[in-house]
Design brief:
Blueprint (H helix, E strand, L loop, with lengths): L1 E5 L5 H11 L2 E5 L2 H10 L1 E5 L4 E3 L2 E3 L10 E4 L6 H8 L8 E4 L6 H8 L7 E10 L5 E13 L7 H10 L5 E4 L3 H22 L3 H5 L2 H20 L8 H11 L7 H7 L7 H14 L4 H17 L1
Helix pairs in contact: 3-4, 6-8, 6-10, 6-12, 8-9, 8-11, 11-12
The structure holds NADPH dihydro-nicotinamide-adenine-dinucleotide phosphate and ketopantoate.
The site of NADPH dihydro-nicotinamide-adenine-dinucleotide phosphate has 31 residues, from helix 2, helix 3 and strand 8.
Length: about 300
């Protein structure tokens, strides 16, 4: 299977790199600076699951229209439109497109570019970042990429994907509840990134204070209610489950949003917290803490300009 990864950053570089390491036919669609970095340094993964030093094949936007069987979309949400324009010529009607972004709003944009049938569900659980040399630094125990049909069915195409993804160092999981998985990850990441960014702290110190835990629970509840009122298929008891998961995170665990803030980079505030506020307004859900967090993130963005 010919695999194209759009974006050789922290997530795309990691999972695409693991497929390449296994011997799959992987190409990365990149921009000039990253292409040069990959030529000079190679695709370097430093991970608790084993390091890798790879020489990937890269292509650039406008460099032709070679077809691919599967395309991973692994950019930040604020780069999505340009990224989709770049990848479009490499997609055919038989191509399966798998998004790795956090959130939900990108699905609308992707379905405008490709047919509903081409885009399946996808997400990843991983802590990964790029250092100043462009090396991928992967620090979490979990390094899982989940994908699946919206119907949950094990179709021929996802069976073929499973074969391609099996035996890889990272964990690729075929899910029969991918829509629910994506909403639940969205609940988790909006809360975790919102709280750790607001507090400018990893999760440990936040949980170490009584008020921190109370606010975390309140934020989970605001987001859960917003999602449920907008028809999201969340499981019963999801807040208790995710509070439990959060308590088990390492003391120094940070969201990728906080890591980006620490590096002075752009963040996905509109895509994550902002979109939820729109959904809350649409259905009349009160979300005071989410509003404060969004305002805080917008002030950070304003100061970047
Ligand atoms: N990092 C993490 O731990 C996790 C991240 N996520 C989510 O995954 C998504 C991707 O995040 P992440 O991998 O961290 O982001 P990164 O910024 O590390 O990587 C994104 C990559 O996309 C590239 N890119 C952007 N636009 C284009 C384009 N038009 N053509 C080609 N390449 C392009 C960027 O390249 P360039 O260098 O040219 O800008 C960059 O290398 C986000 O939604 C994030 O929330 C989810 C789970 C964990
Ligand atoms: C919480 C985590 C690390 C899980 O994958 C994540 O998605 C992020 O920080 O963006």
């Amino acid at each position: 299977m010919k695999v194209l990864v759009l974006g050789a950053g922290a997530t795309g570089g990691y999972f695409g790199g693991r497929l390449l390491e296994k011997g799959e036919d992987v190409t990365f669609l990149v921009r000039e600076k990253r292409e040069n970095q990959l030529k000079e340094e190679g695709l370097v993964i430093k991970s608790k699951h084993g390091d890798a030093h790879l020489r990937p094949r890269t292509i650039r936007a406008g460099s032709g229209d070679e077809p691919f069987d599967v395309v991973f979309i692994a950019t930040k949400a604020y780069h999505l439109k340009e990224a989709l324009e770049a990848v479009e010529p490499f997609v055919r009607e038989y191509t399966t497109v798998i998004p790795l972004l956090n959130g939900i709003e990108h699905l609308d944009e992707m379905r405008r570019f490709f047919s509903k049938d081409q885009v399946i569900g996808g997400l990843c659980f991983i802590e990964s970042t790029l250092n100043e040399k462009g090396h991928i630094i992967q620090t979490s125990e979990t390094h899982e990429l989940a994908y699946g049909e919206w119907s949950g069915r094990e179709t021929d195409r996802v069976k073929k994907l499973s074969e391609t993804f099996s035996g890889t160092e990272a964990s690729f999981r075929l899910s029969d509840t991918i829509e629910q998985d994506m909403w639940q990850k969205y609940l988790f990441i909006t809360t975790l990134s919102g709280m750790t960014s607001l507090m400018r702290s990893s999760i440990g110190p936040v949980l170490d204070t009584l008020e921190g835990r109370t606010y975390l629970q309140q934020l989970f509840e605001e987001v859960r209610l917003t999602m449920v009122e907008n028809g999201a298929p969340l499981a019963e008891g999801i807040v208790e489950k995710q509070m439990g998961l959060t308590e088990k995170l390492g003391y120094n665990m940070k969201s990728s949003m906080l890591r980006d803030i620490e590096k002075g980079l752009h963040i996905e505030a509109d895509h994550l917290q902002g979109y939820l506020l729109l959904l809350a307004e649409r259905t009349g859900v009160e979300t005071p803490l989410l509003r404060l967090i969004y305002q805080h993130l917008k002030v950070y963005e304003k100061n970047l300009q």
